[in-house]
C-alpha cells in the first residue's frame, strides 16, 4: 500500500505542476547578474528556501493558514535558475487559485526578494506585476514649496511696479526741460527776408529788429 502511495503522489504532482498549467507561475532568477562574483549556487537548499517563502506568504492569506512547505511544488527547473511552481490543496488534490497566489506574492514580494538578496528585476515572477516602490515623502513639505513660489511671484511683481514708477517719473521730469529747449531755439532763430538776415522781435526783452527802423528812429531813441 505504501509503495502504491509513493508511486501515485509523484504522478499526481507531475500532473499538477506543468509549464503553462492552470494556476502555475514561472519564476526566473538572475543571481549572477545581481551578485556578480558573490553569486551563490542554486541547489536543493535554495529550492527549499523558496518553497518556505511561498508557504509563508500563503499562510498570510485568509483561510490558507495551514499551508505547508510540502504544498509548494516545483517543476522544470533549469540550470539558468528558472522553474514553474504551484501551490496545492492536498485535501482536494488540486492547485490553489492563481488569484490567491498572486495576492500572497505581491504582499510579501520584498520579503521574498530579501531572502535571496535580489530585487524585482533579478527575481521575476513572470505573470505577477512588479511591486511599486512606496511613495517617498519629499524632504520639504509641499505647502512650503507652494508658499515660496507665491512669495517669489509677489516680490517680482512689486519690483516691476517700482521700476515702472521710476521710469514714469523720469519721463515727466524730462518733458519741461525739452519744452524750454524748444522755446529757446525758437527765440534764437534768425529769419531772412529779401536776402537780408533779420532778427525776430524779442517779445520778452523788448528788442526791436534794426532792419525795420527808420533813420530818425536810429538817431533818436524813444
Automatic annotation (TrEMBL):
Query: What does the UniProt entry say about where the protein is found?
Result: Cell membrane
Q: Where is the Collectrin-like domain?
A: 21-222
Keyword Phosphoprotein appears in the UniProt entry:
yes
Q: How does it sit in the membrane?
A: Single-pass type I membrane protein
Q: Which InterPro entries match?
A: Collectrin (IPR042944), Collectrin_dom (IPR031588)
* Protein origin, superkingdom: Eukaryota
Protein's UniProt name: Collectrin isoform X2
